[in-house]
Design goal:
It contains seven helices and no strands. By secondary structure, it is mainly α. Helix 2 packs across helix 6 and helix 6 packs across helix 7. The chain is globular. It starts with 6 loop residues before the first helix and ends with a helix.
Length: 188
């Protein structure tokens, strides 16, 4: 009789999978894990990391902290849904669960890693000047992992179709984040 793993076990397994994805980035590594979880696990994982990241932004108050969590979760859902939807239109064969789970394995820890680095830069006088560079590095790293994740979770092999999927999802998620941010009173 198989016991259902506890939430703690599930999170610890996802942390282990994230370490593998981040330290050995490849389509093959993503494919090892793409069917190990569902949208539920992905949202819990991203939510936990959103709270951790939000703690670094508590200086703007509890409202800013809560807005950050909501925007992170909505942004993740919109972006991964658009990856799934556009990826399907490009001939992709993955499921929404595979997309969300695959993306959560790098999205969540990268948010915390870059959040910690930004926090450290902000508390140092000279580091403030490096924030734009950190932002560029964060974008490049996330695009790299997203490219691999689209290949894996949507089973797309053609570079053009992968880029169409990523760009369409990125633009759509950006617009939705602007709207949600405006409704919630901005990010601050």
């Amino acid at each position: 009789m198989n016991a259902t793993p506890s939430l703690t076990d599930t999170i610890m397994n996802m942390v282990s999978q994230s370490i593998q994805v981040i330290t050995k980035p490849s389509v093959a590594t993503f494919e090892q894990y793409e069917s190990k979880g569902t949208l539920r696990e992905a949202l819990i994982y991203v939510g936990i990391f959103a709270v951790i990241t939000g703690l670094f932004g508590l200086g703007s108050g509890v409202g800013g902290f809560l807005r950050g969590i909501i925007i992170t979760l909505v942004g993740f859902l919109v972006f991964t849904y658009l990856i799934y939807y556009v990826g399907k239109s490009q001939g992709g064969t993955g499921t929404f669960d595979q997309v969300t789970y695959t993306f959560s394995l790098f999205w969540a820890p990268m948010a915390v890693i870059f959040g910690i680095l930004a926090f450290l830069l902000v508390i140092t006088l000279i580091g403030i000047f490096l924030l734009p560079l950190l932002g560029i590095v964060a974008i490049v790293v996330n695009i790299y992992f997203a490219y691999l994740a689209v290949q894996s979770s949507m089973n797309l092999k053609e570079s053009g179709k992968i880029w169409i999927t990523l760009i369409a999802a990125g633009v759509g998620a950006f617009l939705v984040n602007l709207i949600v941010g405006g409704i919630l009173g901005g990010r601050g």
